[in-house]
Design brief:
- The chain is elongated.
- The protein has a single domain, classed as Cytochrome Bc1 Complex, Chain D, domain 2, CATH 1.10.760.
- It is 51% helix and 0% strand.
- It binds heme C (HEC).
- The site of heme C (HEC) has 22 residues, from helix 2 and helix 3.
């Protein structure tokens, strides 16, 4: 009986170690929709039109994020949008604006520690924004 209990305990330990390792190796997938509501809607609005509850108290109006493709001849400028949100590039238009550099913010978040996880999370946000584009 004792040996069996020990065996069961060993199996549990081994199994939970496998689960932990698997969880660490899985690429985490982030929900752009959820993150948008959490981090962005306060300024950009729940439907991304630039009219969130904070918008009025900002010096510069938050961009209407449903019009990003329109300004670029109907092509959604994903690379530019990624860089804008990340805010890491020295020439980035949003350096010093009221829009935070999300690359740094997300890299410090427990769900997306480090530059690469933060980038994956920003890519999910960019993909979500792509789905919101107004039809030309
Ligand atoms: C504190 C308010 C605030 C929050 C929160 C915020 N933004 Fe912004 N955002 C702004 C403002 C203000 C601008 C316009 C800044 C400018 O033009 O200099 C802007 C601009 C942008 C632009 C540039 C649009 C363009 O035409 O180039 C993108 C993309 C964007 N925000 C995405 C996001 C995303 C995604 C989030 C959430 C992760 C977010 N923003 C959160 C205030 C905010």
């Amino acid at each position: 009986m004792k040996a069996r209990g020990l065996l069961a305990a060993t199996i549990i330990v081994v199994a939970s170690t496998c689960v932990t390792v698997a969880a660490r190796m899985q690429p985490v997938s982030y929900s752009g929709r959820t993150d948008f509501q959490t981090f962005c809607s306060s300024c950009h609005g729940a439907d991304a039109r630039g009219d969130g509850p904070f918008a009025k108290s900002l010096k510069k109006r938050p961009a209407d994020l449903t019009q990003l493709a329109k300004g670029d001849n109907g092509v959604f400028p994903d690379a530019r949008i990624f860089k804008t949100i990340e805010g890491r590039e020295p020439g980035s238009t949003h350096r010093g604006s009221e829009m935070p550099a999300w690359g740094d913010v997300l890299a410090k978040s427990t769900e997306s520690q480090g530059v690469e996880n933060a980038a994956a999370r920003i890519r999910a946000l960019v993909e979500y924004l792509r789905t919101l584009q107004a039809k030309p």
